[in-house]
Design goal:
The protein is of the alpha/beta class. It is about 15% helix and about 30% strand. The relative contact order is 0.05.
Amino acid sequence: MEFSAKQIASFIQGEIIGNENVTVNTFAKIEEGIPGALSFLSNPKYTPYIYTTQSSIVLVNKDFVPEKPIDATLIKVDNAYESLAKLMSLYEAGKPKKQGIDSLAYIAPGAKIGENAYIGPFAYIGENAVIGDNAMIHPHVYIGDGVKLGNNCILYPNTTLYPECRIGNECIIHSGAVIGADGFGFAPTTNGYEKIPQIGTVILEDNVEIGANTCVDRATMGVTIVRRGAKLDNLIQIAHNDEIGAHTVIAAQAGVAGSTKIGKWCMIGGQVGVAGHIIVGDKVGIAAQSGIASSVKDNSQLMGSPAIDAKKYFRVSAAYKKLADTYSEVNNLRRELNELKKQINK
């Protein structure tokens, strides 16, 4: 597919600076631009590349002011990154999509399949499962008994939905993800640990995305729930009875222990560990590798392990870098003080 600058600007409501008839048919990073490609500039550190890029069109923010001539046609928008996302979604939607049920897929007699669904070879759909319209179920997906999958969902190869899970509309679940495995529940006895049956379920609300090899465990009782619009990266552990708030994003290798509630619009960095049975408020930012041991108030910004206020962490970190020198100075002062004491005692 090929689009002109005029067509693109009309779609994203942008202002054209340059040739409105120039066309593009692909995307490229600004530093790797090629003729016929569309790039974007939103991070100031990439500004030098806009003067050398070979891309035909570059999206920029409205406040961008060039310091020298630029060969590419510019389209000024309120938010270049957001506009790029819209264009890439449009491009992706235009690609042909597979439809139909492969003869090698297994569908239980009591399952219900929506309209225009694609079910790839070796997919398994259990008894009484309900598959929504326009579902894309790739090869080797397992959908257990009683699962309900909403409309326009995509399940990539080797994803697993345990029985009775509920998946909303417009959800994307990537390869290797497991939704609804047993929570980590064991009772200590004199003979070891006795398994506690996990009889709850998992609910993913609308527009949730789950990354590759991420696990969302079923509740011991009740539900583990990921609220609408939340995005989970790869290799994340969400334990039993957790609640992940709407539009919260969690980066790779993070782990949330059981019965913890995380609020909406939070941003949680990679390798963060969150203790169980606590509440993390709304719009909380947690830096990578932080450890959250207790409940957190709304709008907090945390770093470190155990995590503290981010501004305080920077001050502590700056002091830590000087700790060896400070230690030497204290020892020198101690020796001087001891010499003074000796002289006074004489």
